[in-house]
Amino acid sequence: MTQAMHQPEAATRSLGETLVEAEHLKVHFPITAGLFQRTVGAVRAVDDISFEIRKGETLGLVGESGCGKSTTGRALIRLRELTDGVVRFDGIDLTTLNRDALRRMRRRMQIIFQDPYSSLNPRMTVGSIISEPIETHKLATGKAKLERVKELLALVGLNPNYTNRYPHEFSGGQRQRIGVARSLAVEPEFIVCDEPISALDVSIQAQVLNLLVELRQQFSLTYLFIAHDLSVVRHISDRVGVMYLGKIAELGPPSAIYETPAHPYTRALLSAVPIPDPKAERRRKRVILTGDVPSPANPPSGCRFHTRCWLYEKLGRPENCRTEDPELRLVQSDHRAACHYAEDAMQSDVGVAHMREPETIKRRSFGAPQTGATRAPDDVEPSASAAIPASAGASPSDVDSNA
Amino acid sequence: MTATDDDRRADTGSPAVAELPEAVELPESISLETEEGRRLASQLADEKTKHARKLLEVRDLKTQFFTKDGVVHAVDGVDFELDYGETLGLVGESGCGKSVTALSLTRLVPDPPGKIVSGEIIFDGVNIMKLSNEEMRLLRGKRIGFIFQDPMTSLNPTLTIGFQIAESARLHLGLSNRAADDRAVELLSKVGIPRARDRMKDYPHQFSGGMRQRVMIAIALACDPMLLLADEPTTALDVTIQAQILELIRSLSDEFGTAVILITHDLGIAAGMCHRVNVMYAGQIVETGLVDDLFENPRMPYAWGLLDSLPRLDEERGSRLRTIEGMPPDLLRTGGECRFAPRCPYVRDVCRSAEPELTPRQEELHMARCFGTEPGGWIQ
Amino acid sequence: MAVQSTTVDAKVAERPPASLYRDAFERLRKNRLAIVGGFIVIFLVLLAIVGPFVTPYGYDQLATNQVREFRGPLNPGQGGHLFGTDQLGRDLMSRIMDGARISMTVALVVQVTVLLIGVPLGAAAGWFGGRIDNLLMRFTDIVYAFPDLLFIILLTVVFKDTWFGKAVDGLLLVFVAIGIVSWVGVARLVRGQLLSLKETEFVEAARAIGVPDRRIVTRHLLPNSIGPIIVAITLGIPGAILAESLLAFIGIGATPPRASWGTLILDGQIWMSSEPHLLLFPAIAIALALLSFTFLGDGLRDALDPKLKGKQ
Description:
- The complex is a heterotrimer of chains A (403), B (380) and C (312).
- By secondary structure, chain A is of the alpha/beta class.
- Chain A contains 14 helices and twelve strands.
- Chain A has helices at 69-76, 99-105, 126-136, 142-155, 172-184, 202-219, 230-236, 254-259, 264-272, 278-283, 310-314, 319-323, 342-347, 396-401; strands at 18-33, 38-54, 58-62, 84-89, 92-93, 109-112, 190-194, 222-227, 239-244, 247-252, 329-332, 335-337.
- In chain A, a hairpin with a 2-residue loop joins strand 9 and strand 10.
- In chain A, helix 3 runs parallel beside helix 5 and helix 5 runs parallel beside helix 6.
- Chain A is globular, with a radius of gyration of 23 Å.
- The two termini of chain A are 30 Å apart.
- With 380 residues, chain B is α/β, with parallel strands linked by helices.
- Chain B is globular and about 65 Å long.
- Chain C has 312 residues and is mostly helical.
- Chain C is 71% helix and 0% strand.
- Chain C has helices spanning 2-5, 20-29, 32-54, 64-70, 92-128, 130-145, 148-158, 163-166, 171-182, 184-198, 201-209, 213-249, 261-270, 277-303.
- Chain C is globular, with a radius of gyration of 24 Å.
- The two termini of chain C are 23 Å apart.
């Protein structure tokens, strides 16, 4: 593996001005009861968060289920109505757009879903799934439309002749590629990737992740990458946001988030991620959080994390954690954390023990002979066949017939 | 409690502080400086000195599913052993046969369409394949505990969890209602459920996902089993809850000396939890070894391909991940060639003309199914 | 488990472009039971249309001399009546054919009414949700709770003298009335289907693309709920046919001398012990119709589900 491959990618891609901006974003889901559906409370899925995504940037969003990361992603492209706050896309306030204007905006922003099974209509052929956005936005008709569909299929590494097949005839990884092709059909600038690989098998995850990275480069895409897997987010993101109970706990570049995390929750999360290395596993200093995530319908007072916080216990349960909701404040350049005691958190070595002895971590030197430049579709299509390493010896048809 | 149970207790003892017989040579990977290392070392010592008999021996297990499209060779000739108190990982992707292996071990393969067509499964000296259904049922509840991926579907939603835990103790241990309830409370507090006595009366839906998994563990441990089968026990849970549950399984298996078969697709979990790991692919074990050897020096291209394809927290960020080409093979047709050959970057003609056997590698207990990494092979 | 993980990908050969419905037709053709059902349905419909023109007797034609001679219904085959006659000497076969007209029309009109009311109402409730859903569903609850018979009687009384009340001897009104009291089940079914489908990611994807709402409903939601709707409709046909005969029994609907299959059965009951053919032949007709509708419905449901391809 060459040194060049280790270069953080953001350095090679230029980041432009702000493309997407969320300001005091709130999404509450009413809880209703009774015959007349009276509102008796609200699930505060997203509760007052602000951030921005620059052009060409990939912002990773991590957190546990129910922390509001998916809702945030959907609210950003107005697939969820905002309870309060503003979302701006390229300077345009999406919350004030009317139906038609919003529909036109949908050409510029798209979403890729988690579940490759429920995200494709089982009664539509792959061709009609991918041509739907083309028809909706009247981008092409007739023969040109079909050509475009085939081009998109080839782009995501599928056989362009598969247009007449139904989704259930494909494997999970292939279906996820179809979903990607559908999103790309409108030539968007911004794509919300909502856990795009977490439903896939381990050996397929890397293939789809690589595809997303390639497409990002090819089309200068901006991503919001939502995942619960911290290592995946670290791999693909230029900046990372950690969410807990509808709030952003910490936001910053991967180097800051993963090496000097300033929020005790981030540290706890990091220490909980299993590392596929038994020695590193034994070396780690773990914090095992007690209890469950509290209900977003009734979040704890003050800092939402204080009910499970190890630092709070360690510091002797300071009062302001229970009473004051900490602001997301700057703790280093470009690194913000919502913790009254962020500086204390940064002093700790909890959750980052794995970063200590990097020289002991190595990839097997006899790794696969293919180079970093090869594309690895889980389904082989002719135009990609050149990318199959010669030494692999598996011709496209071999792989295909073996599927 | 029976005499054999007591024997077992005495045998496994308290591993964390056990003194090591001097005759045991330790692999380099195990350091006596750390508590974890000592634990491993003593377990290794146990393994070598005390037990002639294994808790579980699986020989040439074949389980097939008879479908309209043909015979699916879901488990195709699996051999492995498990020591008393050992934690063994079964690792692989969906469809590799790891779950079917676990089902076969307890004869729970759905029949039809599934059927165990051949093999021997010796559990604590008893050939499971020869037991009657009734004997098997008793064995399942009492000697083998289960934890499944989705605790919601394995708990009965209409019964209180107290009843569900106590039921097993009543049935298999012959406890009175009162004693069974006490046992249930004890188990619930043991698995970390606060206010255990109050929560006995609660129904499964009143618990969160992590708590339900704890309840499942309590049920699995109700009769103090010798083997715990955990099939993706944390896949449905969040990382912080996953860490709790894994820690719980680890500490309970230490405390009770319960052997664990941990089925997972997550190599990280296997690395942190297991003494030994079996990597499965296309219905076979393709590599097996002590966890350190296997992760440090995998000897099967599939195993290291999997390891290489994971983005890791503890390495530099790279822009591109290594991938394994193609998809897992169709289990309808097998044999004649290495099952990984169509996806293997090192493939040679010999891989297509014969199927490799699971053969020993350099380290003890380390075996792999690959011509290329055999002594004198072309992958070194 | 391993069984599901094997993909059929390689086994599916290249095929020519086709729409969902053309594919569905291909699949339907391969379903033998559905085809048999379909042919019987067509046969019954043809029988209803042309039957009364080709029989030698009218449905109300009394065979006066024979009745006088034998003092009772004729057995099948007697006196040139293939199915025999009833107690008044009317040819049973002719009456069944005429009854097919009524019963087939009932099946059609009632279920069309059910579709026209139930599907849009259920779709609206499911799609809009919230207050509209609440309102529509309370309305269906009221309709459901209202006594069917009372409603039908009221309706026939109110519309008695309008063109609608007089159309097809007043039968159309009765049929529509039956439909109006039977759509509740389908409405609830469609609502339930839409509520769950609405949350699926493929619908969300369509919204993210900017597909107009109406197209989402017609292209994504309804095609995916069509299976259960078809089953509900075909299984509703027996109910409709029986409802008509019960109404006829209390004097609403097919009034003598006309007879539907239902009234033929009701009449035949009286003679069950001595003249079983009066019950038997109409019962066979109804059973045949219901079975073939069910087979056809099942076949349609399977045919419209691409996942079941090649599994019949």
